[in-house]
Amino acid sequence: MKEYRFTLQAYKGVSTRYTCPQCGRRRTFVRYTDRENNTHFPEYVGRCNREDTCGYHYTPKQYFSEHPETKKTTGTWIKPVPIRVKPTSFIDAELVVKSLNKYEDNHLYMFLCKLFDRQTVWDLMQRYRVGTANHWKGSTVFWQTDMQGRVRTGKIMLYNPDTGRRVKLPHNHITWAHSFLKYEDFNLKQCFFGMHLLADKSKPVAIVESEKTAMIASIYVPEYI
Fold this sequence. Notes:
Order of helices and strands: EEEEEHEHHHEEEEHH
Strand order of the largest sheet: 1-2-4-5
Oligomer: single chain
Domain DUF6371: 106-225
InterPro entries: DUF6371 (IPR045951), Zinc_ribbon_put (IPR047731)
Number of helices: 6
Strand content: 15-25%
Domain Zinc beta-ribbon finger putative: 4-69
Pfam families: DUF6371 (PF19898), Zn_ribbon_16 (PF21957)
């Protein structure tokens, strides 16, 4: 088996996992090392383990391509070069507002109306900023809205209107709004679903597994956000 000179640092405890320079998440970033111990890369040369939500990966090849002069440098520390962090991208606000209707075609809305009255469900969808998507007929989009009211992305899912369960056949019906909309050079930085509701500091915060659970739980335990 071929051994590469530059490899990701082997895990030897939390001290070998660092803060990602892009998403800022602690202990998710792995740095590259040189087996010959001649090249000492800057701290941003590595990969974030959060491949689906961050995807940061800056390789030694990229570094040498952008800094060819360092190939001649051996046995010395390479001076770190500041990296320019791309700003967070957002979904167009007008598009989000337009999605907050046509609930009569929304399968999740149909299911929730079996549990609660229509006005309660409508208020719930509006409060959590849950829209209707046209990716699949009857699909729902859960907008991830931050505390400044900006929409980071949206998770599009399709539910069975009778059972309220996700449709997983013939394939898992789930995708992301920024992918569906084909935004170019979109820099995704996710936030919690319902994060915009944290402006109300009078209630304790409860975190649950799914968006649907958060919505239903807010009716049964309204003393929590």
